[in-house]
Amino acid sequence: MTRFSLAMLGLLCCAAAFAAEPANDDARALVKRVVDAVPTVPYVSRMELTTPGGLVREFDMNGKHLENGVDARYIEVTGPMNLKDTRYLLYEHSERRDDQYVYIPFMKRVVRLSEKTRSEPFLGSTFFVNDMIKRELDDYTYRFVGDETIGQRACRLVESTPKHPEDEMYSKAILAIDPLDLVVMRAQLFKGDQLFKVHTTDALEKIDGYWTPRLQTMRNLEDNDASQLTTVEIKYNAPIGDDMFREAYLGR
Fold first, then answer.
1. Which domains does the chain have, with CATH numbers?
2. Cα separation, 68 vs 166, whole angstroms
3. How far are the Cα atoms of 25, 39, 120 from residue 42, in angstroms, in the given order?
4. Which residues contact 206 (CB under 8 A, 6 or more apart)?
């Protein structure tokens, strides 16, 4: 099954004039093309996350598709000292509910993340853990709702609405997609009818043939706060073993 994550699609001219509006099925097809363009090769990356208070969190994030069909991501905080060695392990299954775990250093224990925890700030930022968890493509309906120029890119606006809103944090998202390079330049996230958060891709660079977001911003309009996520360094096709992506590795 095809899955997508707003942060990962983001972890991403004049408005185009179309003679006729394509069918809504084409909106889903465009999102699927974006999903299919996301790298599936193993990668290692070094990230910096700036919180609304100006504090910087540094962490490494590695990802790999495992032989059992699971997409796994391992995150380890390297700074500051009070958060150092906090570790996350995210499992994304194709046939059942995903699993997320965190190792809390001062407790010296591994905790499975609950639904409530997923909706809380990630390392004190305006990103939530939930923003980094992938979703099933067919758990949503899609339709084109306009066009907009963002950063000199002519983007299509696609509204994504969950089929089961009671299970979701956001009531809908409006994705601004560059249909040429297949990148999401902006995601507007709603709670009810109110715009809640705005995720933007502020800097892109093609690395090893993949469009990679160098700088992303998540603005929380409710709290009037913002955080920035910087990809300091990334290497695709990295030689990573499977041991890193086992629960036992978290509490080593």
1. 3-12+14-250 (2.50.20.10)
2. 30
3. 31, 8, 28
4. 212
Strands 99-104 and 109-112: antiparallel
Q: What is the mean pLDDT of the chain?
A: 87
How many whole angstroms separate alpha carbon 125 and alpha carbon 120? 9
Say if residues 56 and 47 touch (Cβ distance below 8 Å): no
Number of H helices, E strands in the chain: 4, 15
CA triplet 232, 180, 2: central angle to 5 degrees? Answer: 75
Query: Angle at the Cα of 12 (from 9 to 13), degrees rounded to 5?
Result: 120
pLDDT category at 114 given cuts 50, 70, 90 is confident
The helix (H) or strand (E) run that includes residue 114 is: none
* Average pLDDT over every residue of 143-167: 94
Distance of CA 150 to the CA centre of its chain: 19
Q: Dihedral of CA 241/129/109/234: which sign?
A: positive
Q: How confident is the model at residue 20 (pLDDT cuts 50, 70, 90)?
A: very low
Asked if the model's pLDDT at residue 4 lies above 70, the reply is: no
